[in-house]
Amino acid sequence: MKTRSLLICLIFSFLQPAMAQKENNNWCFGHNNGLSFNTNPPHQFVSSIMAQQTSATISDAAGNILFYTNGAAVWDRNNNMMPNGHLNVPLQSTSIPSIDTVGCNASIIPDPANNNRFYIFSGPPNYYDTFVLTGLYYSVVDMTLNGGLGDIVPGYNAVLLDTNVSPSMAAAGSGQCNKWIITHQLFSNEFHSFHITPAGISPAVTSATGNQSYHAYNIYGDNIKISLDDEKLIWCESDYFMQLFDFNVNTGLIDHPILIDTSINIQSTGRSGSSVEFSADRSKVYLYNDKNQANLFNPYPYLTQLDISLPTATAIRNSKISLGLLVVTTWGNQLQIGPDDKIYALYYADSTDSVYIGIVDKPNEYGLACNVIPNAIAVDTNYANSLNNWFEWGGLSSRVPANEASFSYNVHACNLPHQLSSVIASADYVWNTGATSQSINVGQPGIYWVKAQTCPGAWRVDTFYVMYQPRIAVQDTFSCTGTASVKLDTTGYYQWSNNTTGPVFSTTQSGTYAVNANIAGCTYNDTFRVIIYPPLGTAILPADTFVCNNTMRADISSRFDLGTYLWSTGGTSQFIRVDTPGSYWLSSATQCGDYADTVHVTFCEPVIDKVTTSSGTLCNGQCLTFVQQSHNYPQIYQWTFTGGTPDTYEGPNPSAICYNVPGTYTVKLTAASVGGADTGTLQVTVLPKPVSSFTDTSIIVPYNTTLVLPPCAAAANTQWYLNDSLVCENCTDYTLDAMYYLSAYKCVISNGDCSDSCTYKITVTDIPHDAWLPTAFTPNVDGLNDYFHVIANNPNIEVFGLAVYDRWGTCIFDGLGNSKWNGTNHGIPVQLGTYFWTLQYKVAGSNMIYHKTGNVTVVR
After folding, report:
1. Could you report the per-residue pLDDT of 586-631, keeping only the tens digit for each?
2. Is the distance from CB of 134 to CB of 123 less than 8 angstroms?
3. Model confidence at 340, in pLDDT bands (50, 70, 90)?
4. Could you tell me where the DSSP H helices lie in 540-613?
5. Counting beta carbons within 10 angstroms of the beta carbon of residue 635, is it exposed (0 to 12), middle (13 to 18) or buried (19 or more)?
6. Could you give the CA distance from residue 283 to residue 317 in angstroms, rounded to a whole number?
7. pLDDT tens per residue across span 473-482
8. Beta-bridge mates of residue 11
9. Which of 63, 72, 602, 686 is the right S-S partner for 659, CB 3.0 to 4.6 Å?
10. What is the value of pTM for the model shown?
11. What are phi and psi of 146, to 5 degrees?
């Protein structure tokens, strides 16, 4: 009954990263705002930043600020702009007086070649106003300059790196020597990944994948995020879609797009946008939709969650759940994961003219268990000026990919042994098992870690908590109340055979069901039985049954799946096959009580419609075939043939039955079934075979002598033929006037299909040779006397030719044989008057040719 199949051998889930050092412990953002994670809970401090976009802050390993930037200006740890801290990015605004007070999207990446140097990347702002920046620029900060407070390296102030880029970018490479900065092209499906190595910034690695970008640079809300372990990338474009990708931190390639949301649907005019972020274990993605005016085009609440650990895009989309509003009316800009693995949401509440940071306290948990805390931090606005509403809802500080990082994974092994691997390629590896390869195979649950070092001062530790994931086993169940339910582990993803999903399966129908389960990445199949018992006293058998079919059998089945069965026949399955009439009972002892019922079964009686034969009369020595027609499905056919060979037969239509002795016999058919029997009879007459009493006979008589010809012998039927033409049917004697010179009369005698024959050959003598033609005729086409021809009842006269002439001797008709003249000359009626004729003929039995002449008068 149970069938389970393992489809996936190993899945990593519940990534639990913990940054080894404190490079990201301070955020400078908005209008002079700051948030420090050096304490728990984090505390606010004053900065000099003016940023409406995503800013960037870098601290040292102890959590002390080094510098921060809004992408257009750079401030040192003392909150003073660096001497050359005005970055020459070509931004202009029609509404904001100074680019330093607006900024653009920013990111900071350590220089792999120099621990005192840092790259600042400045990208297009996510803003609706008129900015001309569509390029990606980089600047270099050297912390040894300006007395250790840092400054821009000459020649490296806003160097153009890429053009036609969309807003937002992401940095990757935590725990590695080399880093990545990733952007997306405008109106294209291309990602550009720039590799930052000790040799500098390499040309872009292009990945043409996923959907095309639709937004221009000045539309608010384009967002790219990299998961903490640098393995997944999310790209969200407001008004259109959100896609999930795989990111290869070794090659910079981005592939395997999964469309996980097409319903962001933010209004594309005015200040509106969206932001996304991964949970620390990269099992969840959070989407923060900005409110716009009356929220006309936003069908979802502002903060939503999707479970990207599910196995299919459809399952991920269906997992989308609303986490409610952070505040009733709000302008929001960005989600950002903090060093404490909590997700922070910055927003401006226009109903109270306040700026808040909301917190997702447990981002790894599904649904409301993630514990969204609205208004967790009231952002200080003591430093606001007339522009404060442009900044307090701006972006938070972007994440810096630190040189030292550690991550931990809960590994749910679907099967043992399985393989563990470091994400980093081409590194020096050390496992706690002593292995020094990139991958190892483990055969037992436990804790395993690997340290991968790509260069001095850059390392990544991955710790794997390996747990064996047991296979599911869904137990058979029953219900006495009409509805049965099965509940499984709520952390899994399920697809049931009734097309429902979720951990709870319910049904009101008995049957065998199947489930496809994905639990911690392991996929299993199982089947289980569900029995829904009816109320006690319910009729469990159908109504009394009348059977009339070609098998004369019926399947009598319990109306319900009861699990156990005992029939009066001894059967123990849900149904029995019945082929005899009678009463049948069923009893069933179940968890809900005992059931019993009886059904009466009757069968239809067969009916013979008719019995026919190939001939009702035959003669001895001949054979007949018989055909019956019946209905109501007889099962047995029994034939009896008195006087026949064979004298019995079983089957619907017997083969040939032969009769050798004359007489009258009865044929009997009995058609029977379990419903009864019917009988039909037929009479067969067998006659003796006729035999002629003489052979052919020759007769010579004078012309027109009357003859009476007797039959060859007595028989049931006598037929006479003249030269193969039937002249008399059922005539015993045949009387004729002998007129033909030569004739042959054949007598055929028969009893049934048996016959014999004899022939009379008659020769006539003294045949007269007179031939007579009329003296006048009336060819007026009235059907009377319209032709001129020989008139004689002597069948032996054979005319050779008849010719007609006018009074001048012109031949106007010349006919051969027994031709007739119709009174015309070449189709034109002749004149009334007298015409002359000549006739040539002979008589059968003589070679003499006779000639006659005369005249005929045409009368009209």
Report:
1. 999 999 999 999 999 999 999 999 999 987 788 888 899 999 999 9
2. no
3. very high
4. none
5. middle
6. 14
7. 899 999 999 8
8. 412
9. 686
10. 0.60
11. 55, 45
